[in-house]
Every structure is written in C-alpha cells, then in structure tokens.
Structures
1.
Amino acid sequence: MSNKRIKELRNLSKDELNTKVREVEAHLFEIRMKKATGQLSDTASIWRSRKDLARIKMLIGGKA
C-alpha cells in the first residue's frame, strides 16, 4: 500500500473504513481459499492483504 493510498484512507469516515475492513476481510478469505485449493500463484498477496487490514484497523482506532 503506497503512501498515497494511506492518505486517501485517512480522509475516509469511520463507517467507510469499516466497509473497507469488510471488503479486505472478504478478499483475504478468497485468497486463502485459493491457496488451500492450489490456485493461488502470488502467495505474497496474503501478506499484503493482512498488512492492509491492519493499517485500516489502526486508522479506525485513531478516529475513536
């Protein structure tokens, strides 16, 4: 996730960030299932999604 993307996320409201969390969690589930079935070629995408999820949750905590 680039610095530009993080700046865009900082401008979102808490509700919009919660929506992003659900989207990233769904994507993470999909790529985990692909890995389990052997269809995933880019295994680093799991790592990236987990980090994106953590960054978004950090931003939500800061807006509390």
2.
Amino acid sequence: MKKIIILGAGMVGKAMAIDLSKEYKVKSVDIDKDSLNYLSANYKIETEVLDVTNEKNLSNVIQNFDLVISAVPGFLGLQTMKTVIKNKKDLVDISFLPEGVLDLDDMAKEYGVTVVMDCGVAPGMPNIIAGYHHEKMQIENFEYMVGGLPKERTFPFEYKAPFSPCDVIEEYTRPARFVENGEMVVKPAMSDTELLDFENIGTLEAFNSDGLRSLIYTLSDIPNMKEKTLRFPGHIKMIQALKAAGFLDYSPIKVKGKEIVPFDVTSEILFKSWKLNPEDKEFTIMRVKVQGKENGVKKEITYDLYDEYDPIEKISSMARTTGFTATATADMILNNVFNEKGMFPPELVGKRPECFKYILNYLEKRNIHYLKTEI
C-alpha cells in the first residue's frame, strides 16, 4: 500500500487525510496536537507533532512516503515546497503561497519530482477547466467567481473563514491582477464590486481578487481573464473600512510605549469572529465561464458548483471542494495517470483530457458536482 504524508491538519488537511485513508496509508503532521488527536482517535491515520519550519525534521519525517501534500499556511508554503523537492518527493500543494513558483520548474526536474501547485477549489478547478478547454477552442474570455460562506448570516461580518484567516486577509490586501484586451491590469483588491443573483442563495457581492495567479502567464494568449471573490452584500464595505483606517497595516505603531503591528492584532481578533466550528453549516459556490470559438463556432460554456457541509463525515464544503481536488490529483499521480516531472500549475494538468476527466470523476464519486451548460 502506498503511503502519503499530509503537512497540516487544519480543516482542509483533516478532510484530505480522512479521504485518502480509505485507500492509502496516511500520516498527518501539524504543530497543533489537538488537530492531530481528532484524526488519530477516529481514523486509521498516523499522526505526529511537527514544526515544518525545521527543515531537518521535515526532511526526516517525509523520507518513507511516496507523496507529500502540503496544506500549510501560505507564508510557510515556499520553504516547505523547496524542502520537499530537495528530498525528491512528489508534491501536491494547496498552501496558495503568495510567491510565484513557476521558476522552480528546473529544480523539480533536476530532482525528478512531480509538483502540482494551487491544487484546490480556486485556484485549482478553474485552472483545470481553463486548461482543458484551451486545448479544444480559441478562448476569448475566461472568468470565474467563487466564495465560501456560512449558511447562517451573523452580524457583523456574515462570514466564517474555512481556512487560515491570515490567508483570507491576504485576498483583501494583495493587488488583483487580471487580463484585459491582452494586457495585464492591476487594480486594488476589493475593487469593481457588483451584485449578482444566484439560484437558492439570492444576491451576493463580487469583487476583484488576485485569483488568476499562474493563468496570466501559462495561458497568455487568452485576451480577457478575471477572477472575483463572492461575499454577502455589505461584508466588503466593512473590510474596506478596516483597511482605510489602518487596521490591516504591516508597519508597527506604538501603543502605550510598545510597538505592535496592526495587521497582527486585527487578524487575531478576526480569527475569533471568523472561526468556522467543525459542525457549522456552510456552502461553497463557484461559477466558471469560458467563451470563445470551437471549430469556428461561437461557444459559451459554464460550470456551476454548489456544495454544502457534509453532516455525515462532518467535513465543511470548502474543505471538501478544496481538499478533494488535491486528493484527486494525488491519487492520479500515484496511479501513474500523470507522471511528468517538473512544476505544474493545474491548467497544465487540465490540458490532458484523461486528467481532466479523472479529477471530475473522482469528485463526482464524492458528491461534488460541476454542472456544465453550453450555449
């Protein structure tokens, strides 16, 4: 039986461990013992307390595994990725690290490993969809919007964070890059807000965020691409107010003679307000739209995702849709469906029809459905 080690046992890390433990020997590591205790007490999953920033210890613990999945917070992602590559281990990464890592391609090839980055629900599935259709048609416009939201709207933010709050705040502060008429455009995060109606949910608010990532460079012949985040109306005004008032600043300020970083204080407070408890009901919604020409005929293809908290496995929707995209990819690599060496953003995996279909079939078996419509 092949062996997988998962770095990080947060909400998504737990979901991946549970999913993969049904077919593989799985070990989960995390710096938080409580997160690990849940897994070892309820599933056949080996656990170990580990600080991934200790390169020597991380290198030692991954030695006997066939594949590594990294689900660490984004700020730890780059160094963790480099350590795994140097240890000649195939890697599926969902840390959504802020740095560009396509230049690690040579390093991954040198060490003979397969690395698939950004392998979640978004970025992740939209990239896979874009890559697949890029091989079949001339895409003129690609866009997607995505959000993970609580079923119960609670004052003041009407939001719960299904992953690290500091990574969520990053979405609100990192400038948004998109492509317009073949040129990259940079706008502030949270700009160009618009209201959109969704069946069974009602009205949501969309705003610019930096979710295109590698697509800007790998599918650069698509003249128009954009990504937006979805929240309940009113949420983003509150975040804009926090930002304008300095609560998200990284520069230290003095309070009663002591230096503090506003961002650190704000993220600690928001962590409590945004904490998604294990049995909180929530949903994930995403719409991916591809427009262009196939064999000279105009086409518009839309993929709609709506997924809810799983009360049986007690896994959040965001953990399911993010984590199972990664576990599908891990399963695909271990079954030798995808075995090319190097650094691969998901769109380069999606270019292969067998990989595209493999991942969608894997998700379907777990009741994660991407509803495709074509006009």
